[in-house]
Amino acid sequence: MSEDLKKTGSVGHEKMSQEQQAKIIEVRKLIGILSEKETVYCTDATISRYLKSQNWNVKKASQMLKQSLKWRREYKPEEIRWDEVSKEAEIGKMYRANYCDKHGRPVIIMRTDRENSKSLKEEIKHFVYCMENAVLNLPPLQEQVVWLVDFHGFNLSNVSFKITREISHILQKYYPQRLGLAIMYDAPGIFQPFFAMVKVLLESESYKKVKFVYSNDQNTKKIMEGLFDMDQLEPAFGGKNDTEFDMNKYAKRMKEEDNKMHSLWTRTNSLSLASLNIPSSDSTGSEADSDASNNEKTLGSSIPNPEKSLEV
Fold it and tell me: What distances in angstroms separate CA 158 from CA 164, 190, 191, one per listed residue?
């Protein structure tokens, strides 16, 4: 694997310098009094991600975080439940895999040929639900998520510049430093003009995380072998796991995840926030669900400790 890709997987919770800790304290002063949920959200690790995204500029990071908190107050992403997005998810166009990459990063699968949405609002809600769910399942010492985008069967009617623009905005402004890698697998030539338009929406750091991989290219195929256990990966991405996406099993798993999310916030709000010591965390999953129970044990699927799981 290239040194560049190794770096994309190594982002965790590095020990912060005194100067960085001082900047975190400055941000806390600038954002002011917070609600209980906002206090839980604004851990040192979360503030650190906002600072990193703004090159450790305290003023810019504070403004960005304030906007993110405003969005979370209004949109309430942690309150979105499976029943609200199940219609969007029913054909398996986007879902959290039941495996991680070799760096422990959660994996979100996207199938470009399975578009069924008639509503920008509902499609965005489904995307946010998937991101929140992936973050909920992040393992210790990992902060990022991997996207795997399957382009088999793609045509231009499968993409919308408006939706792509909105997703790019949400990801970069409200989930800074969360994207570890976005793998475009077997993207056809007709996608390139669209991607040329999309590039203008991406910040430099986000753009660098987009990698094009082709099944007929031995060099790019090595990226997949370096990042994933090929026995877990689907054939669409060159893997050996031919278990089909099962909507019923996935729905059951997501309802269990909803309970975890509810329990997490309920338990957290019942605790004395002054006693909380919340380090950051991050993890993942797909839908070869016949092995889901074993994989979920690996990922720590029991109701998470609020001291480990509120890094968004």
Answer: 11, 12, 10
pTM of the model: 0.82
Give the 3-state secondary structure percentages of the chain, helix then strand then coil, rounded to 5: 55, 10, 35
Q: For the chain, what is the domain count?
A: 2
In a domain, 170, yes or no: yes
| Lookup: tokens for 177 | 């430093």
Ranges 10-24, 38-52, 197-211, 265-279: which has the least confidence: 265-279
Q: Give pLDDT tens digits for 151-164.
A: 999 988 888 899 99
Structural domain harbouring 22: 3-76
Distance CA 185, CA 107 (A): 14
- Nearest Cα residue to 184 out of 164, 157, 204: 164
Q: Measured between alpha carbons, how far is 312 from 309 in angstroms, rounded to an integer?
A: 9
The tokens 């256990």 sit on which residue? 229
- CATH number of the domain at 99, please: 3.40.525.10
